[in-house]
Amino acid sequence: MSYNLFLDDLRQVKDVSSWIELPLVSWAIVRSYKEFTDYIQQNGVPAIVSFDADLAEEHYGVNWEEADRDGNFEKLNNSLRQKTGYDAAKFLVSYCLDKKLPLPQYYVHSMNVTAKKHIEMLMERYRPIAEKNRKK
Question: Which is nearest to 77 in space by CA: 92, 93, 62?
């Protein structure tokens, strides 16, 4: 089954169209890290995924830019009680590597520029590895 997955705690797909052009396809919408991981474990890897970074109230107002500048992005992200879109991207990469599957096409529609950059860097760093290890 092929499907497309939109991860965002608040917004609908149409709400992000003013700053990112997502494909005009049907989207399954999940609102949290847990919903994201559960959906993938039940349905497999989506054809397309779009990530938001901040998925809980505690993520808003965090100084991600300063943490990134100080080299503490990962440390700050790991200190939060609620998992972020970056954690969801790490789960997806790990899942694909474990199952020997390619990474899906992805977008990052988050307004959090720093976390967006880290999600993109993570996905691009592991894309060649996932392609190399994929099941033939």
Answer: 62
Give dist(CA 86, CA 83) in Å, integer: 8
Which residue in the block uniquely carries the two structure tokens 């991981």? 37
d(CA 112, CA 52): 8
In this prediction, what percent of the chain has a pLDDT beyond 90?
A: 82
**E-only strand ranges, the chain:** 4-7, 28-30, 48-51, 105-108
Instruction: Tell me 59's DSSP state.
Output: G
Q: What does each C-alpha distance from 109 to 17, 36, 99, 128 come to in angstroms?
A: 9, 16, 26, 23
The predicted model scores a pTM of 0.93
DSSP 13: G
Q: How many Cα atoms within 13 Å fall on the side-chain side of residue 120?
A: 10
pLDDT, one tens digit per residue, over 51-98 is 999 999 999 988 888 988 899 999 999 999 999 999 999 999 999 999
